[in-house]
Amino acid sequence: MGTTKRSFVQAASDSIRNLVWSLYFDDAPSNGGRPFRSIRNLKVWHWLRDFFPITVVKVAELDPSRKYVFGYHPHGVISIGAWVTFATNALDIETIFPGVRFRFLTLSSNFNIPLVRDWILALGLASVSKESCKALLKKGLCPVIVVGGAAESLNAIPNTYDLVLKKRLGFIKLAIQTEGASLVPVFGFGENDVWEQVKDSRLRRWQTYIRHKVGFAPVLFHGRGIFNYNIGLLPYRKPITIVVGRPIHCPYDPNPTEAVLQKVHTQYLAGIESIWEEYKDDYAKDRKRELRIVE
Description:
Keywords: Acyltransferase, Endoplasmic reticulum, Glycerol metabolism, Lipid biosynthesis, Lipid metabolism, Membrane, Transferase, Transmembrane, Transmembrane helix
Helix content: 25-40%
Order of helices and strands: HHHEEHHEHEHEHEHEEHEEEHE
Mean pLDDT: 89
Organism: Synchytrium microbalum
EC number: 2.3.1.20
Distance between the termini: 62 Å
Strand content: 15-25%
Enzyme class: transferase
GO biological process, one term: triglyceride biosynthetic process
């Protein structure tokens, strides 16, 4: 066997072994992630922060002795504001909130993609599965969940804020079932403004159909180019302001009733609306309409 052929066989064997290990034996995505400070500190994240720019507004202090479940709204096209804030050290979020250790969450399926898996693990991302969330909280880590998910990404229209939140109770239940946990609403003003979606009602029906079948929405979007402002995939240079709201302390209940879930959900909605009313005239001056909870 020639040297080139042996090298190819060895590389293929190593790739298959690494893939099998990643998919079936490595539990990092559901056990707290595997962040590397050097990756989270890359200069590219600082450039991205300054490009829009992205800033954080701290509404209240957070007691580091408590556990927190953060809900981020809106989803936007790819949650770029949340990504830079919570999955990198560009904004020094853990300095802004001393003692609070954040873990940005994503779909479990993203960890099945070779190379992508290693990249997002290095940024500290973890799976949004129930088991993962419980493991994070048990370790004193704080999950950051983009609550609206794929459904809300289809509502990412500039200067509008249409949230998918009416029936989202899973993260509420998670907080209630965790002793000493609080919910913290987080609102990304400008998250929907940095890309445009392709406008077509027939396309929207197709996107909705695909989302119901496979669980994610194929969002078709465009931004700007390098030398033009109308065509391309680069985001528009619009400010994103991440407002971290006041904590909502949850009653501990390992088996909460529907009434308890709805009560805390109502409090959470009030927290989101409070952020909107307090900051909309500062950070959503060009809004086309008021905040809406559409689903």
